[in-house]
């Protein structure tokens, strides 16, 4: 699945050079020369998009050098899906030509590196680059096959970058958005990502969907990292696993994000108890919430949670999208009718289509599932650690990274 990223910075078409999705194979100088000649005709370029093509190290060097002509005007670069058919050695070699040039672009604000197979082979050059970034505000890097080891190094690099941005405040910009979805980050990356987020505490948008992060990893990520982001507006943790530990951590920290407008926890397996705990907490400050979009699909949410939603939905004055499909209640429930009536009374907002609901469980099945919830993390070899032990380890990690020469 291709990563969809479309951020409007008001860049004119006349200031955009795009070869998007042309499927060109840039292997040699003769392959890229006509396009470099075309690029050089521009007096001013603010955006370059070469996504959906494939480029060799040789051609990367040529293009990278050509970018320097527009050093002071380039704002947005899209390098999404540019390494199809390239081998494990070509990709880091290509990046080694691009990244030093990107660091020379003082106004570069958006960089999209999604849908490139970086894996572990490119992590050295990627980590070095991110560590030195002080101008990029929107860093988009989804579906890169990173895994937990490389994901942890990305987190460490974010930490170093945050430190460097503060040391060079006159020439830097704060990181505002970080996407790292579909990267198999798992629990092993969560501590490093936590300190990376904490150091970049002006982040407004985090997307970490489909990463195989389990409950204790989610808990660490929220408690030690995301909780520090008081400016957070968009949080997407779709298709990771919360169960009770993650749900409790989310509940304890949701009020740390007063500016949150979109929360995506679709397919996160909060389970019935976790849903009710989270929604009850949300109800406590719903009068002050700025939420516009709340995605809760496929979480085993049941009628008790619908009752909680009905209780605070009128207070969420800005909410216009509520997603509840894939949960455990009847489509023709009176509770659903009440939710629809509240939206009608408000004059805007709607539920998603409820076409894939589960059958509500019997009381006996619910009791069995409660027992399963209690054993869930034990069965998956996830024993909770004392908070103070995690804090000490993170402090030591921060100390060792702060001492690293950049």
TrEMBL record:
Residues 350-388 have a biased composition (Acidic residues). Keywords: GTPase activation, Leucine-rich repeat, Repeat. GO terms for biological process: nucleocytoplasmic transport. It comes from the Eukaryota. Residues 389-406 have a biased composition (Basic and acidic residues). GO terms for molecular function: GTPase activator activity; small GTPase binding. One of its GO terms (cellular component) is nucleus. Residues 350-406 are annotated as: Disordered. The keyword Repeat applies. PANTHER family: RAN GTPASE-ACTIVATING PROTEIN 1. This is RNI-like protein. It comes from Pichia californica.
């Amino acid at each position: 699945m291709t990563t969809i990223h479309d951020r409007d910075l008001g860049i004119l078409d006349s200031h955009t050079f795009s070869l998007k999705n042309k499927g060109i194979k840039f292997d040699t100088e003769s392959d890229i020369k006509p396009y470099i000649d075309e690029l050089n005709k521009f007096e001013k370029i603010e955006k370059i998009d070469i996504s959906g093509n494939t480029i060799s190290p040789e051609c990367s060097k040529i293009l990278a050098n050509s970018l320097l002509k527009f050093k002071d005007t380039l704002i947005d670069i899209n390098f999404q899906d540019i390494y199809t058919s390239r081998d494990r050695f070509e990709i880091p070699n290509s990046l080694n030509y691009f990244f030093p040039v990107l660091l020379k672009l003082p106004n570069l604000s958006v960089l999209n590196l999604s849908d490139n197979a970086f894996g572990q082979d490119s992590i050295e050059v990627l980590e070095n680059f991110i560590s030195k970034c002080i101008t990029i505000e929107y860093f988009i890097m989804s579906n890169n096959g990173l895994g937990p080891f490389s994901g942890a190094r990305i987190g460490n690099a974010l930490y170093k970058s945050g430190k460097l941005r503060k040391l060079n405040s006159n020439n830097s910009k704060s990181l505002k958005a970080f996407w790292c979805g579909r990267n198999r980050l798992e629990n092993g990356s969560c501590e490093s990502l936590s300190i990376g987020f904490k150091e970049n505490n002006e982040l407004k948008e985090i997307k970490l969907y489909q990463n195989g992060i389990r409950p204790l990893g989610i808990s660490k990520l929220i408690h030690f990292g995301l909780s520090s982001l008081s400016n957070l507006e968009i949080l997407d943790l779709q298709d990771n696993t919360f169960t009770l530990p993650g749900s409790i951590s989310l509940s304890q920290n949701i009020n740390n994000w007063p500016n949150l407008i979109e929360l995506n926890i679709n397919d996160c397996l909060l389970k019935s108890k976790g849903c009710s705990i989270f929604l009850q907490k949300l109800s406590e400050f719903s009068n002050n919430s700025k939420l516009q979009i709340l995605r809760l699909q496929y979480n085993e949410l049941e009628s008790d949670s619908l009752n909680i939603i009905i209780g605070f939905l009128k207070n969420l004055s800005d909410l216009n999208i509520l997603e509840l499909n894939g949960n455990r209640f009847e489509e023709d429930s009176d509770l659903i009718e009440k939710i629809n009536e509240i939206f009608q009374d408000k004059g805007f907002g709607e539920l998603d289509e409820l076409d894939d609901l589960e059958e509500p469980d019997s009381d006996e099945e619910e009791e069995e599932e409660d027992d399963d919830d209690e054993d869930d993390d034990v069965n998956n070899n996830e024993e909770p650690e004392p908070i103070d032990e995690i804090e000490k380890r993170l402090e030591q990690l921060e100390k060792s990274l702060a001492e690293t020469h950049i």
